Amino acid sequence: MIIAILALLGLVFGSFVNAFVWRLREQELLFEKKKKPTKKQLLKFSILQGRSMCPHCEHELAAKDLVPVLSWLSLKGKCRYCAKPISWQYPAVELATAALFVVSYLFWPTAITGFEWQHFVVWLGFLVMFMALAVYDLRWFLLPDRIVYPLISVAALETVILAIHGHQASLLLWPALGALVIAGTFWVLFQVSAGNWIGGGDVKLGVVLGLWASGARMALLVIFFASLIGTVFSLPMLVKSKSAMKLRVPFGPFLLAATIVVVLFGMHLINWYTQRLLGRY
Fold it and tell me: Coil, strand, or helix at residue 78?
């Protein structure tokens, strides 16, 4: 029953991610075109008050058009009103969010009982925003401060809450160290390359991911897996590209994917590696 509920919630929040990302981008474009957009224009693309609409014809969508995945399938990936194609991104994000919700529950590293439910629910909220950041970075090569800064605040607050609940100062120290390792490493790379190797958004995102990594070892594991995943995905594009120097690949989605892997499986991987290493000597 819990798995079914989480899957359904994942589909719903995945649909929210698609709408959220599109509206946020439209708001940013409004501010780029006009220093002071009108209240009507802002309300149209409001994240909380704006009505769902087709990204092409901007026709307001009916309830039957908003059923995650099923609406897209029934309409064969086209808008009911203008017949223009609706990107496969929509069902893909919905299904991916649902899968992440379920996988997180099945492989959560500790027993989800009592206070741990609060921590798990916060994690689900971060997954929703991680999906939004991944989509935004993949489409526009940008990690918006309007998402990253609130995540830093909430991650820091959650760290403090966990430390208070656990009555351990180390529960503050280790996440802070994780944030220092990831954000610090990226800051150095950003400075050395003048922003060519890694973006400023990745540096700020590193604070959030480091807090969730909760320690230097786990933070280094995030960097390792992000680099590994990025390499695997980038190699085919590098082979096809005539000029590797001109190839742009957003690093944010790989960082986010690596963090999810480390949060759910990091300790198991470290223990497995340690046992294998010590077993040889």
Answer: strand
Number of H-type helices and E-type strands within the chain: 10, 0
Note whether 152 and 207 are within 8 A (CB).
Answer: yes
| Cross-strand partners of 85 | 78
Residue 181 Cα distances to 113, 175, 212, 227, 256, angstroms: 31, 10, 12, 15, 16
Rounded Cα gap, residues 266 and 138, in angstroms: 25
Q: Are the C-beta atoms of residues 105 and 3 closer than 8 Å to each other?
A: yes
pLDDT, tens digit, 9 for 90 and up, residues 225-258:
999 999 898 888 777 766 555 667 899 999 999 9
Mean pLDDT calculated for residue range 26-41: 76
CA dihedral 20→26→32→38, nearest 10 degrees, is -100
Q: What is the DSSP letter of 195?
A: T
Which one-letter DSSP state was computed for residue 55? T
Closest CA to 219 of 155, 175, 254, 264: 175
pTM over 0.85: yes
Query: Among candidates 280, 222, 278, which has minimal Cα distance to 252?
Result: 222
